[in-house]
Amino acid sequence: MQQREEKQLESALESIIQRVNDLKNSIASMIFRVENEFESINWPTFLDNFALISGQLISLSKVISHDKCPSLRNYTVLPLLLCPEKDEQLAQVTEHRVTTFSHDLVPDYLRTKLEPSAEKKMLQLEQKAAALTYENAQKQVAAYQKVIQHVWDIISKAREEWEVEAGSRGSTQQNSSVADTHLLVAAVGMGKGLKLGPNPNGQPNPTSGGMMVAPQGRPAGQGQIPPSTQAMTMNKAPSAIKTNIKSASQIHPYGR
Amino acid sequence: MGAPGTAMDSLSAALKCNIIPNQEYLLQGSVLDQYVEVLLHRLRGLCDNVDSGPESFQDHELCFTLRAANPSPTSIALPLRVRRALDVADAPWQLRYVGQQELGDKSRPTVVRSSIDMACTSTIVEFLTELGCRVDFEYTARGYMFRKGRMKITVSKIFKVGGMPNKPEGLEPISQSYLVELSVLAPSGQDAIAEDMRIFAEQLRPLVQLEKIDYKRLGN
After folding, report:
1. What is the pLDDT of residue A203?
2. Structure confidence by residue, pLDDT tens digits, A159-186
3. CB–CB of B188/B23 below 8 Å?
4. Which residues of B touch A211 (CB under 8 A)?
5. A114 or A242: which carries more pLDDT confidence?
6. CB atoms A220 and B123 under 8 Å
7. Which pLDDT value is given to residue A196?
8. Counting CB atoms within 10 angstroms of each CB, which of A134, A190, B41, B109 has the fewest?
9. In this complex, do B29 and A181 lie within 8 Å of one another by their Cβ atoms?
């Protein structure tokens, strides 16, 4: 009987330790990110981290309140020996957070009650709550609910207005045109509307070869073509090309 | 066929060693001219280069294609892009290969395409011409560049080169909008960055709708 209980305690402790370690790791990584990536971290990632930590807390409390988990409250932890000397093994186990098992640290670590001042305050509040009559409590609850309802109304109204405004703005103000996007992307990506070559009947224009050769005619080592020269080269092109471009663009209207 | 073969070989060899950032994650959109200031202001607030302000650029891009000597319907032309800065005199030229884009399914937030780029000198044009490349089209892009971490955001006006002979600069804008591109170059397999891009694109709505755009559906 006792053996079974011991086994249960051992497995429960093991799973609690594992979950506490998970929790510790995610808190540590969160602290690390806040300290080192505070410039680049964004709000969604930050909230994701919080969600992870809260999920781990929930799973920890589930383990503790599980049927199979023996009530830890019934077990006593008793400090047998306090020592002001450094304890290497203890330091290793606690990742150098606790180096001595001494009289000024142990009460803090093995504490099961709140601090006396906090306890006193809790007691005062409890007494005050107990002294309250039922009618009074009901009244206070009603007043509180009224205030909350009021704030809720203000927020909903603001949200409604904001949504209506955003909706109307979205429909009236057009900042970009899909046709223009497609035109620009097709031009930059495939040269649509920019090609010198093809004329209306789809045959490659022989003069486009001449255009291409133009840079070849430059003496080697001249370096960069100044923009003006480039423009001039273009202007020298036979006028037939210009009309070709025009009629080509009529056949392929941009706004398709 | 010899020249395109070796070019493709060296490209595939470069793709195999997975240390170079050869994947481009891309989202595209546009903004009408009259709202570009609003967009620039928002980007100034969102991006890293807050103090220095946006970096302006004016680039000329030549798009070459290398076709097989005996064109057959199955042969794919190899596209190569040469870009040079018009506003910075001694900047190197850039040669770039951009591969076929992969749209993926809905769960993938961005277009992914392979991309290799390198610095070169102005003789690249002669070199490519000697190789048998032909200029397919060209344009000038003038606009602003922003950075946010690894993300690059460009807002640029696209001009036809030599489109308007009576204008001294010979530049004709091809639309009443600015092209907006959000891209990241990364080694393949770093798909997490796409999610960051989606979140960033979300912050620019409804000013700009940055989307995955399927070139195939745009028609030729």
Report:
1. 38
2. 998 888 877 765 556 778 888 888 888 8
3. yes
4. 135
5. A114
6. yes
7. 62
8. A134
9. yes
Question: Could you tell me if A231 lies within 8 Å of chain B, comparing CB atoms?
Answer: yes
Q: Give the H/E segment covering residue A15.
A: helix A2-36
Q: Backbone phi, then psi, for A177, in 5-degree steps?
A: -120, 130
CA–CA dist A196, A110 (Å, integer): 85
Instruction: Tell me how far apart the alpha carbons of residues B10 and B68 are, in angstroms, rounded to a whole number.
Output: 17
Please say whether the beta carbons of B112 and B104 come within 8 A.
yes
Domains of chain B: 25-212 (2.40.320.10)
B208/A220 Cβ within 8 A? no
Reported ipTM: the value is: 0.79
pLDDT at residue number A240:
43
Q: What pLDDT digit, counting tens, does each position of B76-123 carry? A: 778 899 999 988 888 899 999 988 888 777 778 888 988 888 899 989
Residue contact A188–B158, C-beta within 8 A: yes
Choosing among A172, A174, A176, A242, which should be mutated to test the B contact, i.e. which has the most B CBs within 10 A?
A176
Asked whether the beta carbons of B138 and B90 are under 8 A apart, the reply is no
Pick from B60, B44, B64, B50: nearest CA to B155: B44
